[in-house]
Amino acid sequence: MASAKLKLKELLVRNKFMWTAVFLLWIKTYVIYKVGFRISSEKLLQEFLLFINPLSSAVFLLGFCLFFRGKLKYIMVILVSLFATIVLYGNLVYYRFFSDFLTWPVLFQTGNAKDLQGSVFELMSPLDLFLLVDVMILLILFLKSKRPVAETIKYEKIGLFATALLLFIVNLTIAQIERPQLLTRAFDREMLVKNIGTFNYHIYDAFIQSKAKTQRVFASSSDILEVRNYTMSNYKKPDATMFGIAQDKNIILISMESIQSFVINKEVDGEEITPFLNNLIKDSYYFENFYHQTSQGKTSDSEFLVDNSLFGKDSGAVFFTHSGNEYNALPEILKSKDYYTSVMHANNKSFWNRDLMYEALGYDHFFDIASYEVTDENSIGWGLKDADFFEQSIAHLKSQPTPFYTKFITLTNHFPFELSEEDQFIDELDTNSRTLNQYVTTVRYMDYALEVFFDRLKAEGLYENAVFILYGDHYGISDYHNKAMSMFLEKEEITPFDSVQLQRVPMYIHIPGHVNNKTLQTVSGQIDVKPTILHMLGIEDRNEIQFGTDLFSPYRKSFVVLRDGSFVTDTHVYTKDTCYLKNTGEEVEMTYCEPYRQKAKLDLHYSDKMIYGDLLRFDLDN
Ligand code: GP9
Ligand code: MN
To answer: Which spans are transmembrane here (predicted)?
Structure first.
């Protein structure tokens, strides 16, 4: 086993050609990150990650050349370097047009390719030839080399792939520290590339996409009939006076970041946390028992629920995994009724894969970060401050054809709830959680921003003819802060029952000039928004596959299913295999919850079936 004892140096020298290629590809990728993609880092650790992330895949890719013998080994090294360059360059050209990275579906999607065709040459520059510099160097070295090519020994191959794996694990570990739940939650391609590198990202993407594809293959058109029979049997007739009430009016949807109902009508040192929202209750339909139904996809899940009346996934984000599906979403339906549909949100368009998903949902336009002027002065935390965001959105709103359906997504009230001093209108709390302490101040700020928005809309004459739907996207304070939460709510402890009740988020339907406003108790959730909007617009939807029910329907059942299978009815709360009495939170026998357990399961099951099977691609003759 003398060969196994070869020293590291010898190993490097034996495959000098390949290691040179690894080094060149590594450095080249980093330079492209900085010069081509202009990726910047806020922290040293992030920059370090960016620097090391091309290494593991460079070793892995070029390591395959060890399987070849003689001169062919060198030729393979050159070809693999060329292949890697083509992948990088493909991403770069795509990035120059879309400010985004390639995904496998995009490569095979004709729509996107069409967009690119005309301009692809404009996106290239003679300077791009520098990208071939490593391939050139390798070619020259190859032509000049006279020494015989060293034969690969078995242990070398194993050692090399072990090295690649080790490098990848180290890389991933640091990335997980820097971005917890990177692979399951933060589905921003730029973030993935920043953290694990372009090639690893493509492999990860291939894995995700192929998983989705297999489930799709086994689905058939009879599946959709089965699901529709189920949803139609749950259909409830709308309320006659509310049906068509919003016809031809502009619809303004406001997704309020991380707000939970417990802040409504609550004070800190005698100061209301949400004075504007508290006041809005009396001029609106306010839903006191409205729950978010999101999971790991957070904001994107709430968007999915609202636009489709389908559940998001129990893990991962449907926005990321199933953007290639066929949908029959609100924007698409409204477009067919001559509505202009858009989203305004001052973040990267690729965050949560929004750019691709919005296309699938049928939005006409996404006013992303590029539509906003974001400076150091007007941003905090995740970016543009809410008040500036709303202010700058007015011009966009005015530029749109009417009637429009526009969704606004706020950002300032996002973890870690940072705020500039001048925007802090109330004191922080004094619990043992800094997060909760700051949270109330950013909620207060968001409330202020909403007031500014309404005032501006009134001043611009955009208020009267609009219908407003405001809802919280998901929780802001997780169970991790239960101790602090119990201090704030003056409770002894937060039980699983309380945790479910804390998933309530504010929900308003505000119709300017309307008189019959009231606070409604119906137990409901984000899944109910789509049928409600359709009915308010006078659109018949008996045949739509929806898992929610019109919030105004006199026939609706008070019922909501959360994504983890918990559910709430008028009288009971079910969570973690326990049934509770809703009024008191007292544990009761399971038999009380039993009748609804099956329905909760079926709702989730059939909704998942729709998504995994991409069932809406099958035509149903309505
Ligand atoms: C990002 C914003 C926040 O664009 O919507 O996303 P979240 O982390 O809340 O899902
Ligand atoms: Mn959110």
So the answer is: 17-36, 48-68, 75-97, 123-143, 155-175
Contact 547, 313 (CB under 8 A): no
Q: Residues of 218-238 as b/e, b for ≥16 C-beta within 10 angstroms?
A: ebeeebbeebbebbeebbeeb
pLDDT of 121-167, one tens digit each? Answer: 777 888 999 999 999 999 999 999 888 888 888 788 898 999 999 99
The residue assigned the tokens 């099977």 is 613
The pTM of the whole model exceeds 0.90 = no
At 91, list the tokens: 């991403």
Identify whether 299 is a catalytic site residue.
Answer: yes
Residue of minimum CA distance from atom 5 in ligand 1: 299
Catalytically annotated residue among 152, 198, 274, 299:
299
How far is the centre of ligand 2, averaged over its atoms, from the C-alpha of 259 (Å)?
Answer: 9
**Extents of the domains making up the chain:** 2-214, 242-549
Considering only CA atoms, which of 239, 242, 244, 246 is closest in space to residue 404? 246
Q: Residue 161, Cα to own-chain centre: how many angstroms? A: 34
Residue pLDDT, tens place only, 582-616: 999 999 999 999 999 999 999 999 999 999 999 99
Q: Going by CATH, does the domain composed of 242-549 fall within 3.40.720.10?
A: yes
